[in-house]
Amino acid sequence: MSGVAATVGDAPVPVDEVDAREARLRASPLAAALPAAGTSEGRQLRRWLTQLIVTERVVAAEAAAHGLTARDAPTEAELLPDVTARLDIGSVAAAALADPLARALFAHVTAAIDVTDDEVADYHARNPLRFATPRASRCGWRAPALSPPLQQVRAAIAEHLRGAARRRAFRVWLDARRAALVALAPGYEHPGDPRQPDNTHRH
After folding, report:
1. pLDDT tens digits for 134-164?
2. CA–CA distance from 126 to each of 85, 116, 121, 144, 150 (Å)?
3. Which segments of 35-130 does DSSP mark as H helices, in order?
4. What is residue 7's three-state secondary structure?
5. pTM
6. Whole-angstrom distance, CA of residue 188 vs CA of residue 50
């Protein structure tokens, strides 16, 4: 073994595992978009892959601790319906949620999260056209939408707010579990850690 990139609890994550994950990625159709190995950006990619690996291990450990299986897990589209949702939860968590076991854990952790009628009404008051349907004019142009009554869009708003609240809750929970369980070796720090030398702001 060439060394340890991280530990999750008492279990080491070998550098070999990061190497193998990077090699698979560089052999995939995404290879042309990846930074060159050995560069600052290439080292940041390895840090991101390390984050993904330790997150997968945390998910597996937490799912086992709660007796969860991938059966009846929600779909990826249900939890991450659009690009905004993926950005909201973060790239590592979004990548981890490709695994149905992670989605089962998400459902377990966020099962009690809901929104109130007042939150729905307040959102509609602040965003009256958010769920409006554009109207077609007689000339084929799309006319400005009319603000739908709250009752007509209540369910859509509630689903939207509930999804955002659950993603936020899962992200906070996952960050806390990683902080408690994961130790990163030098060179494999979080990509956003300001103390590591490759986290520099350039224009």
Report:
1. 766 666 666 566 888 999 999 999 999 999 9
2. 20, 16, 9, 18, 12
3. 40-65, 76-79, 83-89, 91-96, 100-109, 117-126
4. strand
5. 0.87
6. 7
